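Record type: monomer structure entry
Structure origin: computed from sequence
Chain ID: A
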Amino acid sequence: MNLRPYQRQIIGHVCMHPRTNLFVPMGGGKTLSVLTALDLLSLAEDVFPVLVVAPLRVAVSTWPAEVKKWAHLRHLRVSVVNGNIRARQKALYAEADVVCVNYDNLQWLADEIKDGHPFKTVVADECTRLKGFRTRQGSKRAAALARIAATATRYIGLTGTPASNGLKDLWGVQWFTDKGERLGRSYSAYMSRWFKDTAPYANYPVWGPMDHAEREIHEKIADITISIDLKDYLDLKEPVINPIEVDLPASARKAYDEMWKEAVAELRKGEISAVNAAVKTSKCLQIAGGAVYTDDEGNWEEVHRAKIDALESVVEEASGAPVLVAYHYKHDLERLKKAFPQGRELDKNPKTIEAWNAGKIPLLFAHPASAGHGLNLQDGGNILVFFSLNWNLEEHLQIIERIGPARQAQAGHDRPVFIHYILARDTLDAAVLDRLQGKKTVVEAIMEAMKK
């Protein structure tokens, strides 16, 4: 296993600090680094069992998959607390080193284990979800986790954007690390020390940081916080590639396998079929994406939301930073618009591009064919997500180039480009990506997929 220098730095920091913050962007290898650090620590101290709290998709798929992926971690036993009450209880009380639960189940978990929890370490992935914590009121989920995290020997908070909406968000996130030691025992104490009413004549207070606030707050938490800026470690001429694998739900997996093997699949609304290999390949890619055309009239049926959920995690971790989303099928666009009403379609109106480059569009949905030569999108953002893929290499390269490293540099932006590929596990998605990355021809990629 070849760890990057910043991953080694993260591992060393975790080992040295029982309670810590890791402010590392998506694609920075947080999960691998934390698991490796805890595995190393277990040789000298009791760090297991670990409770990992994360968004649903991350808890169910990402953490278990990371353990399976790396040989040095495969001895760890992972249990995912999800499903109905009986399933959650079974998973919670199973013999496991790592117990994964999503934020929505935190209250149930805290009530289930009460004060006798067994967890030596708590890891809060995307810990900005704890920003609403208050010692007396605030988020119920955060309060539920506080009952567990406060008495665990170790605590690790993970996020790429600790204060996306300003410094006011940082108090709740930091409290879990030190119980208010550095930023104040209460939110009101934090606010009165570093914030002031910037509109004293308004009908309600408008709190803004004092001039010295940012410097002092950062100094207060610096000793137990590691912040990684990937541009300090990476060649900005190359984008940061981050494959995000999702598992197909059982019904979607059944439909995919039927189509792949028999060229026929049974959906809720009826049967679909493929008349030749090209159509079968297209149908499989559609099912992998989450929806499939059911006739020649453009009607379609949604078969799963796994990729929608994965994109929600990317958007949440971006915390307000604009995200460019590439899609392939028209039903992709319809589903994206419904799931993310704040998003906009890249159309022919030049004001759309102006608004994107001005940072006024949080999500821009673009078909690679519509983002061709001469289109400048680099001022709007540096995050690109491929929601679905097709075989067209030129279109793929063209949409990357719209916000690519060269254009970022030309525009004076000193920042890396992040490219996230949302891939359905054990489907043709991987074959298409192999083709697009130049590893195989289309035929080779499909033939390789047929062997699996």
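Annotation 1: The chain has a mean pLDDT of 89.
Annotation 2: The two ends are 25 Å apart (CA to CA).
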